[in-house]
Amino acid sequence: ISACLVGSEMCIRDRHNTAEVMGTPATDPAVYDAMVEFATRIGMVPIQIKKEKAGYLLNSLLVPFLQAGAELLVDGIAEPEAIDATWRIGTGSPAGPFEIYDIVGLTTAYNISRMGGEKQQRFAELLKTLPGPVLAYCRTGTRCTNLFAAAQQLG
């Protein structure tokens, strides 16, 4: 969920139970404080971002992690299952990069990767070559997971 106060150029975004609160130099400090208070009141954990950052905090951390998983795949180092298992077992995290791609959705992964460097573009091409209609209909991670599994069983 994202909610932006356009007039104050201030945004609050939630990811599970966090709300990334970011203002701009033009944001009235009282409005910023009110957004932090609002996030707290609705049960969110406000994460205060001190200055503007594309992708906020979560995506700034998440995208390089996902890209590292994609690069391991396109370089032929390991298959997605091994990459995910290594991350889960080694860190105690509930999901590895490809399991997170399932949540994010392959369309999002494709759109981000096709704008990246050479290895990311190779990953985008790999996604593009998945048996149809996987990429065309992946608007959500759950749909992607189901379609990808079905396509893998076909061939």
Folded structure, characterized:
The structure is a single chain. This protein has 155 residues and is an alpha+beta fold. Helix content is 54%, strand content 13%. The chain has a four-stranded mixed beta sheet with strand order 1-2-3-4, with helices on one face. Strand 1 and strand 2 (10-15) form a beta hairpin. Helix 2 (58-74) crosses helix 6 (118-128) and helix 5 runs antiparallel to helix 6. The longest helix has 17 residues, at 58-74. The radius of gyration is 18 Å and the shape is elongated.
Salient structural properties:
155 residues; alpha+beta; 54% helix; 7 helices
Percentage beta strand: 5-15%
Overall structural class, as computed from helix and strand content, comes to alpha+beta
Q: How many distinct beta strands?
A: 4
String of helices and strands: EEEHEHHHHHH
Detail the poorly predicted runs.
Answer: 4-10
Lateral arrangement of strands in the main beta sheet: 1-2-3-4
Helical fraction: 40-55%
- Overall average pLDDT: 80
- Between the first and last Cα atoms, what is the distance in angstroms? 37 Å
Question: Could you tell me the radius of gyration in angstroms?
Answer: 18 Å
Number of helices: 7
What's the assembly state of these chains?
Answer: single chain
